[in-house]
């Protein structure tokens, strides 16, 4: 597997894209190893979206592209404003045939707007999770109906105990309701409920997940980061032993993407990170950025609510450090895909990430 990842990186392309890696202005810790999550810069409010930053209705190349795409499918359309502009996607508020809507488009090679639209349509059809209605999906973009409860910078909620209780149960229901459609692990393909590169074992899918990020990191001189994580996974085939069965994992179910109301999930958005993986993968992907690794009332409420719907498997706490490795490689790739920092700051963040991943590996050895 190591040789294949190193020598054949052109064969790996991520189906779990990097778009919205955001952090609170603090560090996180993984207990009991006390390994810090490196602070990667901007606060979530400035990284996540750029609502209101582009109020002009002037004709731009992207607006022209959107208009051309919408013209083919709808009788009338108007591009109103840009809501989000962080590579590899842009998001715009539009109207189509008099209906308020949102369109999301790829702006880079790692963009998967069409993939996200298909996942969201699948979730809307097969689960009780509230999502925006998908109106049109093509390879490079999708259009969804405007959802009044969708998270936004103006209405974003805190990851407090109230949010945690609603979101924990909501995430577990998403997992529970998608489990019957998935028999293997891997990059999620919502058109038929199978993994594109399906694996019977999560370890193999997790290894491929890491490998898929090597091409980007290799371009910036960090292929060794992927290689050392792959080397560890290759030498520890039992790293994920005991993980639960595959479900549709959202991949970033924090308040930036999940709004709640009256104790229930009100709307879930941004499924570009979706993957067929164990539910515990999604649990840790949410807990680390939302609550940190230290115990808290909110974190405990999230777990209690999740397990009231879908119990977590034995040993899931032990495996959190292996999920931290997956997250670390993901964060590293996102640093370059998003390109949100100057050269000096990017270099400093890359060094912190490299050291962080190395520290985790050393602690696990």
UniProtKB/TrEMBL annotation:
Pfam families membership: APH
Key word Protease present: no
UniProt entry keywords in alphabetical sequence: Plasmid, Transferase
Recorded GO MF terms: transferase activity
Domain Aminoglycoside phosphotransferase: 90-307
PANTHER family tied to this protein: AMINOGLYCOSIDE PHOSPHOTRANSFERASE DOMAIN-CONTAINING PROTEIN, AMINOGLYCOSIDE PHOSPHOTRANSFERASE-RELATED-RELATED
Protein name: Aminoglycoside phosphotransferase family protein
Phylogenetic lineage: Archaea, Methanobacteriati, Methanobacteriota, Stenosarchaea group, Halobacteria
